[in-house]
Amino acid sequence: MTNTYDAVVIGGGPGGYNAAIRLGQLGQRALCIEKRGKLGGTCLNIGCIPSKALLRVSELFEETKSHYPALGIKANDVSFDLDAMMAHKHKTVDGLTKGIEFLFKKNKVEYAVGAGALLGGNKVEIKGNDGATRTVEAKAILIATGSEPTPLPGVTVNEEDVVSSTGALSLKDVPERLLVIGAGYIGLEMGSVWRRLGSQVTVVEFLDRITPGLDGEVAKSFQRLLTKQGMTFKLGSKVVGVERKNGALEVAIEPAASGAREMIQTDIVLSSIGRRPYTNGLGLDKVGIKVDNKGRIPVKRYATSAPGVYAIGDVIEGPMLAHKAEDEAVAVAEIIAGQAGHVNYDAIPAVVYTAPEVATVGKTEEELKAANVAYKTGKFPFMANSRARANASTDGFVKILADAKTDRVLGVHMMGPEVGNMIAEAALAIEFQAAAEDIARTSHAHPTLSEAVRQAAQAVGGWTMQM
Ligand code: FAD
Ligand code: NAI
Predict the structure, then answer these.
(1) In terms of domains, do 390 and 421 share one?
(2) Of 6, 109, 244, 301, whose CB count within 10 A is highest?
(3) Could you tell me if residue 317 is inside a domain?
(4) Ligand 1 atom showing the smallest separation from residue 168 Cα
């Protein structure tokens, strides 16, 4: 076993494992260190993939129970088996994490199971999960150690009845009442899972809107729909404490701007107020790296202040998304290999995988207004899309924002069926610097949901064919 590498990657999540694979493809001798005992990071093990597995099965259950009868499908006494649902989730995660080990072998990437720590210079110490310690050297060291849930004072997570997303992915029973703190990605996705399976879900959000960062108009419609589905929102409110009393949890809630305290009883509390970069035990001080006020490692084209040390993914600035980490992984691997790696941060999509889904890429109306950019808007509702009508799934709309002078697409925001897949077209349009008219005049198969994107692009130019 060699102890000298071209690159050592600390962390085996979407940032780390993709970087290691790309480094291997580029002929670099790469080692990836991961302490979890499984590759795939937060995303595969306790994030994107298990949450999507539960979103899918819970959506199928709700569809079958509540929507099929109106479509002529008789499914009497529909019920579910939570253990079997969880087994599907486990099987999915297991298969995918093993798939990365296979990709490592295929691309000649070495894998060390243990915790990596910077020793200074170009050295990294690996404390193996088997107890053995080893020191390795590399021309390039890549930190991809990801993130962890942000703790909330007064709310002690025990992953039993006061849970983070990790506990919310593995509840043993469907709680009668679930109180979610934070109306962001995790709160709304996991809240949807448990509501569909029977929980009464209350979401407490500090701000006066849900999903901050998403287009305001989309967020308003989204909240209306989630409310119609049975979720209760308490906006402009903060949780200040959780206590166990008489077999239930008592949650103390106050107005965000301070005021009278209210107590709510619940069975499970999910704390999902954001995530923070994770650099515990990494030895950043050994190489003189100082994190910023949000705990992120500052970088310039992924290079940190320490020579030969790079960082990507959730541990640096930018949206905490798996595909953003993956994009940076490819770019940094190419930079390390002497090529010109690059990520276009204007073209990174984001999706909330509820039903309907919400998908977004590029600038929001709020951002364009704040930057004094003159823009045109084109909108098209799924109610007027023939495929959505045939599918009996017509909630939502597509909105395209384009530069008032050049017609260049600046932002695309959608809520509706399968928009998580449809946002790829919008990301490509922004990447290629397309005009709205380019989309408007591109043939889209009929009848498809994607025609709504074309119709919204036509609406930017003041015409649409179906309304
Ligand atoms: P991580 O995936 O966090 O990986 C870092 C890895 O480094 C971890 O496995 C950790 O064990 C390891 N590590 C840390 N320190 C050390 C050390 N010293 N030595 C060795 N190993 C170490 N994003 C999406 O794009 N789409 C989604 O649908 C989505 N759903 C999500 C759902 C949930 C519930 C959560 C929590 C997150 C979700 N995300 C989603 C976000 C996504 O998981 C992250 O953005 C992504 O995993 C970040 O990748 P990363 O490689 O930077 O870090
Ligand atoms: P988030 O940032 O999406 O949402 C957190 C919410 O909590 C915000 O609305 C915020 O205003 C609110 N909040 C903050 N402090 C609060 C307080 N004290 N009381 C009440 N509300 C408070 O964070 P979340 O949902 O924890 O997810 C973390 C990250 O994981 C996301 O930002 C996203 O990057 C990633 N993720 C992505 C998913 C996807 O791509 N579909 C799914 C799940 C997570």
Answers:
(1) yes
(2) 109
(3) yes
(4) 34
Residue nearest ligand 2's atom 23 by CA: 274
pLDDT at 358: 98
Query: Token digits for 299?
Result: 């970088």
Which one of the ligands is nearest to 321 CA? 1
Question: 351 and 334, same structural domain?
Answer: no
Nearest residue (by CA) to ligand 1, atom 47, is: 43
pTM: 0.98
Instruction: Return the top range by mean pLDDT from 65-69, 120-124, 246-250.
Output: 120-124
pLDDT at 80: 97
Residue 156 has pLDDT above 80, yes or no: yes
Cβ–ligand 2 distance for 325 under 6 Å, the answer no
Residue 147 CA, closest ligand 1 atom number: 3
The CA 273 to ligand 2 mean position distance, Å, reads 5
Residue 67 forms part of a structural domain: no
Domain boundary among 217, 248, 273: 273
Give the integer Cα–Cα distance in Å for 128 and 462.
63
pLDDT at 8: 98
CA distance 116 to 10: 6
Ligand 2 near 413 CB (within 6 A): no
| Whether residue 413 lies in the annotated active site | no
Query: Among 343, 358, 386, which residue terminates a domain?
Result: 343
Same domain membership, residue 369 and residue 330: no
What is the number of domains present in the chain?
A: 3
Q: Is the CB of 423 under 6 A from ligand 2?
A: no
Q: Which residues line ligand 1 (CB under 6 A)?
A: 10-16, 33-36, 41-43, 47-48, 51, 115-116, 144-147, 165, 186, 278, 281-282, 313-314, 320-323, 325, 353
pLDDT digits (tens, 9 = 90+) for 300-336: 999 999 999 999 999 999 999 999 999 999 999 999 9
Q: Tell me, in angstroms, the distance from the centre of ligand 2 to residue 148's CA.
A: 12
Note whether 28 and 129 are same-domain residues. Answer: yes
Mean pLDDT of 147-166: 97
Q: Which of 67, 90, 342, 446 is catalytic?
A: 446
The mean per-residue pLDDT over the stretch 18-25 comes to: 98
